Amino acid sequence: MVVDDSRVLFIQMEKLLEDTDFEVAAYCKNGEEAIALYDSVQPDVVTMDIIMPGLDGLETARAIIEEHPGARIVMVSSLAYDDTIDEANALGAKAFVYKPFEKDALLEALHKAVADA
């Protein structure tokens, strides 16, 4: 599941995941949508943008992990500071990817999240 307010990023991620072990099961443009859809989609991994309108990615990840402790979330952001990464790790994020990302970095983070199950 991709959670990002940028449809361009979603399309880029779908392209990067072609011919890999991963596919996009759902696209959510904000945190509220991700929380509402998580139950029905039950994704293996969620990529979560941090800066979004409404609930930010950290708040959204926290809400999903509280309700689904086994959720595997990979944080994705261009604006990441050590304290943001520390907070993401503390709430249970499995990996972090910096935007703009390349296929190898994305796949490494997704594999790490799945292996961490």
- Based on CA atoms alone, the radius of gyration comes out at 13 Å
Strand order of the largest sheet: 2-1-3-4-5
The shape, in one word, is: globular
Structural class: alpha/beta
Order of helices and strands: EHEHEHEHEH
- Uncertain ranges: none
Secondary-structure map with pairings?
Blueprint: E1 2-3, H1 7-17, E2 27-28, H2 31-41, E3 46-49, H3 57-67, E4 73-77, H4 82-91, E5 95-98, H5 103-115
Parallel strand pairs: 1-2, 1-3, 3-4, 4-5
Care to describe what's here?
The chain is of the alpha/beta class and 117 residues long. It contains 5 helices and 5 strands, in the order E-H-E-H-E-H-E-H-E-H. It has helices spanning 7-17, 31-41, 57-67, 82-91, 103-115, and strands at residues 2-3, 27-28, 46-49, 73-77, 95-98. The protein has a 5-stranded parallel sheet with strand order 2-1-3-4-5, sandwiched between helices. Helix 4 (82-91) links the parallel strand 4 and strand 5. It is globular, with a radius of gyration of 13 Å. The mean pLDDT is 92.
In short:
With 117 residues, the protein is α/β, with parallel strands linked by helices. Helices cover 48% and strands 15% of the residues.
Which features would summarize this protein structure in a list?
globular, 5-stranded parallel sheet, 48% helix, 117 residues, alpha/beta
